[in-house]
Amino acid sequence: MRSRTFSSAETKLLGKKFAQFILRDKKSAHATVVAFTGDLGSGKTTFIQGLLRGLGVKGTVPSPTFVLMRHYRLRGEKLSDAYHIDAYRMKDSLMDHTLLRAAWDDPKNLVLIEWAERVKKILPKHTLWLKFLHGRNETERVHHLPKGTKI
């Protein structure tokens, strides 16, 4: 599915709607892993802020750029924890692999990975891939969501 947004508020709303899609489709015996790709400033973090809001996260949802990973407790029946990971500075090292594996071992976890193309080789096969692009004007963003996404 391809969509366009024209403001941060619209991108956050799209993320919030995607959260509901994740909850509706949550049937697997493994964590929900969502990989985000796209250039700097293409809306990945903004979308994730809306997604986490849609799952009930309160307060600030900053980018994990310098800490690599942020953890959020969720109060849902299907998902109990969310991990927001920035893989920009990661390599396919054993330490990073162990960190990621621990996050996606629990089926009640949601793992959101920005710059996922940098760790593509170690991501599970069931990973949902989203691609973000800059649009034609300064505020436009183009989002390529997984096939079959209904939001």
List keywords for this structure.
7-stranded mixed β-sheet
Percentage of residues in DSSP E strands: 25-35%
Distance between the termini: 10 Å
Percentage of helical residues? 25-40%
Largest sheet: 7 strands, mixed
Low-confidence stretches: none
- Output the radius of gyration: 14 Å
How does this structure look, described?
The structure is a single chain. With 151 residues, this protein is an alpha/beta fold. The chain has helices at residues 8-25, 44-54, 94-104; strands spanning 2-5, 32-38, 69-73, 81-86, 109-114, 128-134, 141-144. It is 26% helix and 26% strand. A 7-stranded mixed sheet has the order 1-7-6-2-5-4-3, with helices on one face. The longest helix has 18 residues, at 8-25. The mean pLDDT is 89.
Short overview:
This protein is of the alpha/beta class and 151 residues long.
Topology (SSEs and partners):
Layout: E1 2-5, H1 8-25, E2 32-38, H2 44-54, E3 69-73, E4 81-86, H3 94-104, E5 109-114, E6 128-134, E7 141-144
Parallel strand pairs: 2-5, 2-6, 4-5
Antiparallel strand pairs: 1-7, 3-4, 6-7
Helix pairs in contact: 1-2
